[in-house]
Amino acid sequence: MSRTLKRILLAAGMFAIGASAAGAATLDDVKARGALNCGVSQGLPGFSNPDDKGNWTGLDVDYCRAIAAAIFNDPTKVKFTPLSAKDRFTALQSGAVDVLSRNTTWTMSRDTTLGLNFSGVTYYDGQGFMVRKSLNLKSVNELNGASICVQSGTTNELNVGDYFRANNLKYELIAFATSDETVKAYDSGRCDALTSDQSQLYALRLKLTNVADHMVLPNVISKEPLGPAVRQGDDQWFDLTKWVYFAMLNAEELGINSKNIDQMAASNSPEIKRLLGSDGKFGESIGVSNDWVVRIVKHVGNYGEMFEKNVGTSSPLGIARGLNNLWNKGGVQYGMPVR
Amino acid sequence: MSLDTVAYVAPVDLRPQEPAPVSTRGAYGWARAHLFGSIGQVLLTLFGIWVIYVVVPPLLKFFIFDAVWTGTGRDACLPETVGRPVGACWPFIAAKWNQIIYGFYPEAERWRVNTVYFFGAALLLPLMFPKVPYKRLNALAFFGIYPVAAFVLLTGGDLDLRNFVLGWFGLDLGLASAGGLRVGFWLQFLIVTGIAVGIGMLVCPFFGGERRSVAKTILKTFAVIGVVLLVVDIDLGLVPVETRQWGGLLVTLVIAVTGITVSLPFGILLALGRRSELPLVKYASIIFIEFWRGVPLITVLFFATYMLPLFLPGRFTIDGLLRALVGVALFASAYMAEVVRAGLQAIPKGQYEGAMALGLRSGLMMRLVVLPQALKLVIPGIVNNFIGLFKDTTLVLIVSIFDLLGILRAAFTDPSWATPTTLFTGFGFAGIVYFVFCYGMSRYSMALERRLDRNRRH
């Protein structure tokens, strides 16, 4: 019994451990704490998943590392909190995390009713279809009469119904409880196509017996803009998270990457000088040092590098840039000017 | 007595002794008796052989013969690159091994987990074998010192305690600290000790206690509490490791061991409480047991994780793992209470009467006569609960705690290991680990039963 008693007392002591309450000035809290608290998923290939060493990697993870690099000049000063889809917003509201970088779709209801602000769209996703190459399909509209595997209870299931009915296409939905079951069913030939968000399809594709026999159709039937979110009511922090994202886009647009950052720092181009902090005081205006972009690019890279490393062609997922290319290269990623 | 006086005994062996008939001995005889004794048996035997034929070879093929044993990434486990059908992808387990054992525990600090693992085994094993001496000392080390040491090692200690009891009444003696310890906290501790001794001495005459001995007991209790608090409060220079960085087998074992060691004593108390004649104790126990048995563990964990913080005032947050620990322990205690109650009910009335006739007080009667017999009777039920609890620990995944299974699920999402067989490999491995622990518990309990059951054998 005395052991039980001790445990209860230890428990009382452990009250001290835990998240700090939400403060008004998040940046000051982060600086005082010496680390950024970043909410990520419990495992989503290419966006946030633990690697062999137990370090979190992925696009959502790198975005948080970029914020840490801008503030501390050290991308490792991030504490990652894996959050389930259910408690992600509670975690942000209660102050358990400073930024929620967890493949969250930016929708009006979330933006307006949950007390949060979306800082940008780090990944433009959308619902797509995976089919066998042997079917020789070019577009979703050629899937007339196809049987489609989908995970039950998801918005994907509803989207398929809407889209196919709107376009007068015949279809047969075969729903499964988990995504693993869905993949197995598609792999064994139960259906002609597998539908999910495109970023997911590329990850699921890796679980198929013959990856090379399958392709993801290029067009999407829904809009899923995924981006980081912060608490409402702290504009300084909101600005910082927004501009870290824009800075990574601008760096790519100006051809600044982690390899040439040192040469670029000596560049005479006024745009590059402004971005890298040798001209103007843009860093100070968001509460970090003026060489903030140098820090971000040096430690994490520009947006393109971040994309390619985690989900792009140099990763197992091999997702094409598509919509996520820069605005001047056929995509919609557009970094607001640093001026 | 010579042979010739006993006429009916043959003086010599008439016939040499022959071996038993072929049909009753050796492998043939055994098979005949046990496998092919009747038509029904023959059918069952054939069915059994068919089941083994269907299940075992594919399992062996998948997990051993077709398995890939070396490699550094998903390419090593793809049929295209290997050039044959691929079974289990064991390099995946090898690559994730450290996470499976330690979770996200920082690499430089893992020796602390190893130390905890080592001393856990070193203290538990001698406790399990009856022949090893110093049982009392061993038990004290395992149940008394080990949990505190493990707590300090795993979390890093240095809790920075601020308020003791009085803080809940709004008293805060400030943040002044000396040698890493807060003066205010220890002042409060001393005050509370004084108050407790005072109350004890004032109250004890009403219960027929002796003032000196009561004061002594209270002081001793507070001394133990004080030492424990001092150990967890002192700064030993260990890097603090938050529980959210724990994971894998570490979390599974922490939850299971805590649940098991807390649930048995609590369960016994609750069972005794439920059979008590004091109405307050009785109904409190019944309500506790029925409440926790009536709600699912998932609900308990959910409630503890997401609802509790809403009730607690502002800054007052509880560590996530601790919440799960408390939930699991309370839940397991309620189940344990009913198992123990079953044992208490099986003890004949004569045992109670005999104990009373010997002049034992009710506490001693329970401790010396009833409980030893009752607990022995319900060992299978108790171990059943332990095994169930061990496997139920996986439910903490729901509240974002990555136990063994949770860490494997996270590992499945690593695109550099995504292959068609990764999932099966991971779950197969998890199955093996759980089986080893649960089967171990089951075998030990059976040995224990046999040992304790000697007096009942005829």
Outline of this structure?
Chain A has 339 residues and is an alpha/beta fold. Helices cover 37% and strands 19% of the residues of chain A.
CATH topology call of the largest domain in chain A = D-Maltodextrin-Binding Protein, domain 2
Tell me the count of domains of chain B: 2
Q: Classify the helix fraction of chain B into a percent range.
A: 55-70%
User: What is the approximate shape of chain B?
Assistant: globular
Largest sheet entry of chain A: 6 strands, mixed
- Rg of chain A is 22 Å
Helix count from the secondary structure assignment of chain B: 17
Enumerate the spans of chain B where pLDDT stays under 50 for 5 or more consecutive residues.
none
CATH class of the largest domain in chain B: Mainly Alpha
State the secondary-structure class of chain B. mainly alpha
What's the alpha carbon Rg of chain B, rounded to whole Å? 30 Å
Report the top-level CATH class of the largest domain in chain A.
Alpha Beta
Overall average pLDDT of chain B: 86
Layout of strands and helices, then pairs:
The complex is a heterodimer of chains A (339) and B (458).
Chain A: H1 2-14, H2 26-33, E1 36-41, E2 49-50, E3 56-57, H3 59-72, E4 78-83, H4 88-93, E5 99-105, H5 108-113, E6 116-118, E7 123-125, E8 127-132, E9 146-151, H6 155-166, E10 171-176, H7 179-187, E11 193-197, H8 198-205, E12 214-216, E13 224-231, H9 235-253, H10 261-264, H11 270-276, H12 282-285, H13 292-299, H14 303-310
Parallel strand pairs in A: 1-4, 1-5, 9-10, 9-11
Antiparallel strand pairs in A: 2-3, 5-13, 6-13, 7-13, 8-11, 8-12
Helix pairs in contact in A: 3-9, 3-13
Chain B: H1 26-34, H2 39-65, H3 79-82, H4 90-102, H5 110-128, H6 135-155, E1 177-178, E2 181-182, H7 183-203, H8 211-233, H9 248-274, H10 279-294, H11 297-311, H12 320-346, H13 349-357, H14 362-377, H15 379-392, H16 404-412, H17 422-452
Antiparallel strand pairs in B: 1-2
Helix pairs in contact in B: 4-9, 4-16, 5-6, 7-8, 9-10, 9-12, 9-15, 9-16, 10-12, 11-12, 12-14, 12-15, 13-14, 15-17, 16-17
